[in-house]
Design a protein that fits this description.
single chain; globular
């Protein structure tokens, strides 16, 4: 074997290892996000509402980020892409927390994972990706699944039944936008994108409280402070890990990998909250999941 051939194989092996690490990072993020609704419910029961809890935990994450990422922040350069990434992150994180606090966890996540529909459209709009037959099929199947889940026998219209449904849909759109913008900002370091994501959640959460949506009530119990700090630390780690994966995996495939979050959340919701879905929810959810798997073909 020549030195040139050996170097080529070594380079290919490095690419494979990087891809595996990226997939593992997304699975890790899915596990954390499939479970993180529960500590937020503990904080809610301690008297800290979802908006305040999200703002506080992401503020803690921001402080941790300043300590951990300080060397990488020197290259920060403001841009409209990062501005929209911050807003997308805030909408995703706050929407997810509020939806899972007020609705059925698995139902919220199934609506959240209409994200492939939004990813197909946003990838076409922002990244110029071609809409092939698989993309058209993803759109049709996603919409059919959503209509099945949201169908109301009395009124007939497939619309969200409550605020948690709307928040789940909005968070899913924001998640898709976050994925696409993260790919668009490939030259920006993971550390900077993570800090931008934290700041976006802090900004939107603070504005909501200024508008009277949510109330900043600091916890009295030391255990609640400890939980806030622990969630903030976990958020730093998982955002860095997920950003690593998103930067190395196509947006449509990333959505498919992150679908494992539904399984983690379903088990946790059944075990911790005694939640169960109806047949129509499962049928519609299965169609949405299938659409997510088909979205991976968008890469070809």
């Amino acid at each position: 074997m020549t030195a040139k051939g050996s170097a080529a194989e070594g380079g290919q092996g490095e690419v494979i290892r990087e891809k595996r690490a990226a997939i593992l990072s997304l699975l890790t993020g899915a596990l954390v996000w499939g479970l993180i609704w529960y500590p937020y419910r503990i904080l809610r029961d301690a008297g800290i509402d979802g908006v305040a809890a999200s703002t506080l935990t992401y503020s803690v994450a921001f402080v941790f980020g300043l300590v951990f990422f300080r060397r990488a922040l020197g290259g920060f350069s403001p841009s409209w892409t990062l501005f929209w990434l911050a807003l997308a992150s805030g909408g995703c994180n706050l929407g997810y927390v509020l939806a899972t606090l007020n609705g059925e966890v698995v139902r919220v996540l199934l609506l959240f994972y209409l994200a492939p529909l939004w990813t197909v459209l946003l990838s076409r709009l922002l990244l110029g990706e071609r809409l092939n037959r698989a993309g058209v099929f993803v759109i049709a199947l996603s919409l059919a699944g959503a209509a099945t889940m949201l169908w109301h026998p009395r009124i007939g219209l497939p619309v969200p039944k409550d605020g948690a449904d709307w928040l789940g849909l909005g968070a899913g759109f924001s998640f898709a936008l976050l994925n696409v913008l993260s790919l668009k900002a490939q030259r920006v370091s993971i550390e900077i994108k993570s800090m931008v994501a934290f700041s976006g959640t802090m900004l939107i959460g603070g504005l909501l409280m200024l508008c009277g949506i949510g109330q900043l009530q600091l916890p009295a119990a030391p255990s609640a402070w400890l939980l806030l700090g622990l969630i903030g630390f976990v958020l730093v780690v998982v955002n860095f890990v997920v950003q690593y994966g998103l930067a190395r995996v196509a947006a449509n495939r990333a959505i498919v990998i992150m679908l494992s979050e539904i399984g983690f959340a379903a088990l946790a919701a059944w075990f911790l909250a005694d939640e169960a879905l109806g047949l129509r929810d499962w049928v519609g959810g299965a169609m949405i999941v299938a659409a997510s798997f088909f979205s991976a073909k968008m890469e070809s």
